[in-house]
Amino acid sequence: MKAFVTTVSAATLLLLATGGASHGRPTADAPCAGQIHANPGFERGTTGWTAGPRIVVLGDEARPARTGRAYATFAGLDVTRSDLLRTTVTVPANCDLTVRFWVRTTTTETSRGDYLNVGLAVTGIPPKTRFSLAFDGGSQWRQYAMSTGTATTERTATASFLASEVAGNGTTAFDVDDVTFTLS
Q1: What is the pLDDT of residue 104?
Q2: 110 vs 106, 170, 173, CA distance in Å?
Q3: Residue 44 CA from chain centroid, whole number
Q4: What is the pTM of this model?
Q5: Exposure of 149 by Cβ count < 10 A (0-12 exposed, 13-18 middle, 19+ buried)?
């Protein structure tokens, strides 16, 4: 009987020291860390993205990708047209999402007829254009960033890239690569 009481007492002390049995404890929230998009560099084509035709290309020596082999490219044909690339991710409660991307502009244009609008739409917030890039963006890769801010509920965030080109004023190609979606 004494051995039984000692065993029960030891088990009770163990439960008290560890905070009770594990089956009744709530699970922790998902961590707000890390890159959450499966195809940020377009290495798998348009997987994870909604894209118009001819958006993702493989780089070459004249126009290499920033990293890897592939990137998204818009316009550059000297025709009047628009191209759209977008993706949606889930932002857990109490997390901030930062979207970083790289853009390179190749142009023969001399006025502001061609542009690339970059937007971020978040559940509960009206969509808005965060960047409006024109032909004078530069032929070197440049990085830009935008953030959702935090909220107490889970949300969705849609990043969109809309390029527009007008015929007859020179060509402008906007290249986008390494679009990362990082939680913090």
Answers
A1: 94
A2: 12, 7, 13
A3: 15
A4: 0.80
A5: exposed
